[in-house]
Amino acid sequence: MGELNVSQSMQQHVKQARDASLAMANIDTSQKNKILHDLAETLRENSDEILVENAKDMTIANKMLERGELTYSACKRVMLNQVKIDQMAQNCESVAALPDPAGKTVKATRLDNGLDLHCVSCPIGVIMVIFESRPDVVVQISALALKSGNAVILKGGKEAQNSNRVLAGLIRKTLAKSDSVPENAIILVETRDEVTELVKIGSGIDLIIPRGSNELVRHIQENARAPVLGHGDGICHVYLHEDADKEKSLDVALDAKLDYPAVCNALETLLVHHKYPDSWLANILLKMQDSGVELRVCPETKKRLESYPDLNLSAAADIDWETEYVDLILSIKTVKSAEEAVEHISQFGSKHTEAIVTENSDLAEWFMNTVDAAGVFWNASTRFADGFRYGLGAEVVVSTGKTHARGPVGLEGLVIYKYKLYGNGHVAGSYGKGKKDFIHQDIKL
Amino acid sequence: MGELNVSQSMQQHVKQARDASLAMANIDTSQKNKILHDLAETLRENSDEILVENAKDMTIANKMLERGELTYSACKRVMLNQVKIDQMAQNCESVAALPDPAGKTVKATRLDNGLDLHCVSCPIGVIMVIFESRPDVVVQISALALKSGNAVILKGGKEAQNSNRVLAGLIRKTLAKSDSVPENAIILVETRDEVTELVKIGSGIDLIIPRGSNELVRHIQENARAPVLGHGDGICHVYLHEDADKEKSLDVALDAKLDYPAVCNALETLLVHHKYPDSWLANILLKMQDSGVELRVCPETKKRLESYPDLNLSAAADIDWETEYVDLILSIKTVKSAEEAVEHISQFGSKHTEAIVTENSDLAEWFMNTVDAAGVFWNASTRFADGFRYGLGAEVVVSTGKTHARGPVGLEGLVIYKYKLYGNGHVAGSYGKGKKDFIHQDIKL
Predict the structure, then answer these.
(1) What is the pLDDT of residues A224-243, one digit of tens each?
(2) Which residues in B lie closer than 8 A to residue A222 (C-beta atoms)?
(3) Size of the A and B interface in Cβ pairs below 8 Å
(4) Whole-model pTM?
């Protein structure tokens, strides 16, 4: 038999992952946790090997940096050291300490005497995760997949190819030793061609999670046959209502923009009610400007701030409202009403996180109900939209989709449920008009 | 301005539905229920008009039946009468009586003093439902969409075009009178071209639910940009283990095949352990044969039943294992072990419903955990896989997907959740190393 082509070998990988996922359906929490602890140990014991492989990646990354093919921050993300290896090991131990999301009886119903229906959480099956730069994601995602009982196909960035390979190898070695989880529960693929083939496969992969650039996410969303969990743009708004508290609006707006401008939950457009005091707005924008933020405003905002010549205001173009700057740029729009703010968000928002600053609790509830986003915040910075801050224990991805899982997704996003029916020879033909009735009684758990 | 083309007018429909969905985000349960009761009354009051329009469809349907373009059962499904109209009205009242799936706080966490995170169930947004023949689905789906707070775009079968139109019109009239839900919460489209355009739209439609033939479902799954909830084939298996009880195996197998062969939860392939008594198997198959079932067997099964000349056994071809007969045909395969049964199901099953008959509870648990299907049954007929039988109150669709909702999907499948964060000017920059810690305390609901 000759060499397999890319398509055939990806089909084979999916089959291997699927077989592994079936074998994983019966392992219990203690077995999973033991493997996670073994993995932590394996990582610590093999630090030298990991660092040797990472050094190869760093040599290439540094050359790419010199040639301007890689940014400084991307280059930095590739780098591992003893501290980071220890963090990866600790991450495995933390995941072991989390509750098992699978095997929980969500609901149980007695359909009839001796006929009990249990809705039980279970792994999704085979998950594909695509990510960039950071090799520690190999360990993080493998740990989460293992804990939730899913097999995972990983594709990392080529900048970290050697590091990814050694880490995936150590994980597979740990699994092979486990006697309970097959090593094919973790499969690493390395090229874009392989991903292209995998994304096209109609069955076998149950969920795709792209973590990375907007372009990557959009490409996957447009081409995938399996459901996709992730987010493209993060265009978050803060709306300052006319009755907003002075300090709260200042604090929330500044934190949302400045705490970490390069991420998806940072503020991009500030919406301001036309009766919100001009002097307060000027104060906020001056502080933004002092922190290096470029200000792009609508004509109405320009006009109301005419008497503040210290403010350096450029005119916002139409494209500004639909741009995720992830940078020290802020667009500002004056609106006539909360309704107009919501309409703007509905048109330009990315369903990520949207905040209102107001002292009116009814208005806040109305805003939070009406705005269609994963996070709707009242008098709080959009920057809180994060799995760690939410207390989820682990963050798999942030989703701006509308089904399955939304916002920061924890381990719960990696499970679904199945219906187990326990009978005693029961048949459907016994029920109906003139025959037996169903009981449909909740069984207390 | 000239006429809109199909693509433009579908974009407009999606915009109208989306605007309606935003307006629906703030209506409460009592408002929804009032509209459902009003709708029931409207349907009863307008029975004559409904029957007149339905008669037009029936005239065409009967001609199509004569020309062989429509089956008798499809033709029958188009027909409405006073009883059916009354059932539609009652259906609205039943949906009003169901608990509201939206607005429930699923989980609440205190992140810090004065900073509370609530995970709250909410409508998905805009849903498109595609169905065939039965015009009463217009009312059924509209009622479920309304109760869950979603706007819905409906496409029915062209056989029931006039009936669908009058029903959708009455629903929209009821909404228009309501002052709380815009009439565009229910939009009816009528042609395949319109569906083709809608399916291609990348944003605006949040979920597509195809209910109908395998071809329809597969076409939608392959072309849709939005998530799809539904099922194609229903290839269900019953596995008789060597220790299965005689009566239970007979009852379960016969009911699974014969109770209603034309539906997706009917038995298609019987898997039998090689040590399961041949005489019992012969008895089951004779009863199947007496009920008009054609029997297609693997060579091993043929051999073990040689001494039962009354059995009319044809040889199963490879294609039989992957065929949903939805007819009086059964394929039978002898397996060496429960593992082989599970492997067969893994290869040919459609993730719908799979049953094992055994007296061994450990084996049953292993089977139910390992088999990847929405329903995994022990000593019970596959025919129980149904929203009504499960006690869900309403069935939106049966899903064989692996994310969001699985198996018979009730109202819960039409909601997702959003995170509401209640703060008091809180900013993310206050937390972290050397600063404040999060509390992450569960708030009791």
Answers:
(1) 889 999 987 889 999 999 99
(2) 202, 225
(3) 242
(4) 0.95
